[in-house]
Amino acid sequence: MKMASKCFVTLIVLMGSRFAEANEITFYETFAKFFDMNLESFVPSVSNDFDAEPRVHMEPDLLNTFDVNSTYNSQWRAVDQNERAEIELNLQSSSRKMIVYFMLKHSNKNFAKLEKKLYQVSDPRSESYGKHLSLDDIKELAPIPQKYVETAMNFLKNYGISGEVNHNSDIIEAHVDVKVAEKMFNTNIMLFVNKIYPGMYLYRAYGPYSLPKSVADCVHVIGDLVLLPYIRHDPKISINKEKSIFGRGAWENDCDLPSCTGLVTPGVLKKRYHISEKNPVKGNSMAVAEFQGQYFDHRDIGKFSSACHVNVTVEKETGGDEEKAGMESLLDIEYIKAVAPEIPLNVVYSGQYSLLAWVRGISNQPKPDWVHSVSYGNDENQQISSAYVFAVNVQLMKAGTRGLSILFASGDQGVCGREGCGFIMRRYRPDFPAASPYVTAVGGTDFSTNDIGEEKVWSCTGGGFSNHFPIPEFQKQAVENYKKSASLPRAHLWNATGRGYPDISALGGTKTPYCVVVHGLGVGIAGTSASCPVAAGIFAKLNGIRLSKGKSPLGWLNPFIYQHADAFQDVTIGSNGCSPFVKGFEAISGWDPSSGVGTPDFDKLASIVAALS
Fold this sequence. Notes:
The chain is of the alpha/beta class.
């Protein structure tokens, strides 16, 4: 009888394991299905060692500032239990899990070493300029104690979860059932639905969370447990059906689509930014980041290619694609390739709206793409905690130390950001990651007239001063000059000691949007999500100059940009209040927090890059 019972249990375990694997659900979910029992009863109990430990609240900012209305921005709402049950009936099992990231702790000493090395390999005046580090070098420079990895992995193992450790051993990705997550992190998990896109759901903690002390000692933050992302609306658009509404540009239409008349086209960019054709260079590469739902349709990029006489192709797709026309992705792809058609493009797609998932992906690449364009961001204030911001910054620093150039759009809501400046306690809302000193922030401009020529600040371009980051060394003089010369907004509205952004700009305003082919039609799209891929394509071309001579790529761009500000076309008109009732930061001669150092002049930049050691 005992032998029969043992065989029966073995058979059930084997069947359960195979069923779980085939249906992408956990072993515990399988048993719950077989025996019609509550999943909670199958959540494994944590070991006595962890269970006996005191708990530590993570991201302590949450304890003081947690507010559902502000933390979960106006795009999302928590659903009640009845609605949740109805939604979950239609969700695949894999969608009823959370993907979280254990961001392991770096010591302050190692953080300082990493930052020092980043400056050394990125400053053209340094003897170490261009001597970027490999993945293994970075792992050695800023090591994570093996004890930290083992502790976090043992904690996961006690809940029946197998985590995946990245190459640098500082990020562990874990797929966790919601009920298990509630026990692990001692919090309440809610299902949120996006108000703008009702088919979009995310599970997030509905309050602070904690970890056993031994685990908390090793972990900086649990990424994507609390933060709900700001989902970017489709870019500012005007659909120009054939032979109807046109842009205001007075130049000749160089595309064979009548709907492109008066809009920014590849020919306009080449003329304004003095972009010349270059031959392909072995080893050169660039990438655009796309998030949930932002797929692209090959038929659209094919039509854009033939109509606008450029070679737009996608050489690599990381994360998959569906033949759907996402405006954001098509804008990125069509225009990064319009300025740099000779450079292979990788479209990096993430089904999550997760900055950490994206940065983890690029940090794990043994052969990375050298330039990355990202049209993604939240307000700094929407990042939940300083611990989260720190964790992201460490990854951005590591990318720069490897030689990657990362460019982020500066945002499309002017100085007030996505949250708005408020009515009583008014305050400007800087953008993140654009305000991070370890990325290059790209703002937006319009033409001053209806012809190709001088540019002015697009009034809704993001820009200002960070509330998190102090003024970095590479821009101290530029910021000081600005504050001495400009007519500044009232002091209580902004942080005079913060990092200023954007660093550079490119066309992106609503006066003459970009002509993008979407669903076979010409669509006018504006925003810094247009500016960013154009700037990224130009720097990818500059990388080609160095790579053709056997040199390293440019890497983290900011020290180079501020040392060679005269290679950019200065923007001295306009401001970025985005409203007649808001005083933004005005553009002046030199760097300013609405246009950066200006827009690129490829010919000038190419001459400088060719002369670099």
